[in-house]
Design a protein that fits this description.
Blueprint (H helix, E strand, L loop, with lengths): L1 H25 L7 E2 L9 H10 L1 E2 L3 E2 L5 E7 L2 E7 L14 E7 L1 H4 L9 H9 L2 E4 L7 H11 L7 E6 L3 H4 L19 E5 L2 E5 L10 H18 L2 H9 E2 L3 H7 L1 H18 L4 H25 L3 H21 L2 E6 L3 H5 L5 H9 L5 E3 L1 H5 L19 H13 L4
Parallel strand pairs: 1-11, 6-7, 6-8, 8-12, 12-13
Antiparallel strand pairs: 2-3, 4-5, 9-10
Helix pairs in contact: 4-16, 10-11
Length: about 400
Amino acid sequence: MFNFVVYLLLFIISVEIFLFILVNLIKKDFQWVITEKDEFPFNSNLEFKNFLKNNFDKTTGWDRKKNTQGSETLNQKKTYFKITNEGFRNTPLKNKKSLISVFGDSYAFCRYVNDEKTWEAKLEKKIKYCVQNFGVGNFGLDQAFLKYIKKEKKISSQEIIFCVVPETIARVFSYWKHYREFNNIFAIKPILNFKKKKLNIVRIPKLKTDTVSKNYIKFNQKFINKTKKEDIFYKYTFKKKLFKFPYTISFVKKLNQNLNIFYLLIVGKLMSIVNKSSFHRFHDQAFSKILEENIKESHGFYEEIYFKKNFRKLLNFIDLYFKKKKIKYKILIVPQYYDLKLKNHNHKYMNFFKSLDNKNIIDLTDKFKKNKNWKKFYFNESYGGHLNVIGNKYLANLLFREKLF
């Protein structure tokens, strides 16, 4: 009996040591494997300063700066974008009168396509008026709404369109993205709460670009203490997926997912010894599995009381806001690739939007699903399957043909 206990202890210790080494080896190349070190992930004051200078926005958390330009690379193909001095994405008819202004996430901004290939640019060709594109990657509907409020006095468009993906229900409840999108450490945003139809904003801390190293650490510790209280995803997601001693228990908590992810990353590492490009292929497959799991989780939020109740409050507040001002608006729900792929789960958010007595909220999932070749609308990439040139054209034609604006 004594020998059995000794052997069992040795086995458990061996497994712990093996998992400790494996986890810390894998996390170097894969942001979705987190340990206790990720409780305080800030390492570079310089990176923090660059974020404040180039992306930080005190109203929404981050934003595209006026009179800037940039590029994105996908599948070895580079695309370019420019932001005008009015703050919207460059468009062929930017100097003409604008009938529509668009706010939203990366499906509004249109990642990985050039300025003239966005659905807004395609739509404005049909209506012969400028369609201003104020979209920003990873925005929630709450941030898009706050950005509109910030800019509304300078906007003369007759109609406002919000374009977001179904996952927006998760984004609006996030205070610090790091707790749901691990290691997205500079994505700090406000949270909108509603009490008796009044808007209450949990604001982000005041940040200064001249922050020195000592104050930087002090700020971050104070910020982290606050986010743990304010952000539901700290307990809901981050703590549940954190690897800590005993590592064996942490691994078993998400056994199927961890087995799949670790298998792909280990095989990728071994294959890279022979062919370096192999690691990226297996890494992308692992990333896709994480993303698919996150999308599936966000679908479930549409049936959870806390999320659907408070999300409905946001939608009602937006509706009341525009009715009081007598401004036309629409909220377009555009499915991501994984929303359509997970056909056994997407009915959850589809049923939610159908239950709303609001014709200004338009879920386009059915419109996309009816096309048997819907996969051709999306890029083959692991970061959400954004609309490609064909997809952007399809969306513009759909909006114009069915007069959804």
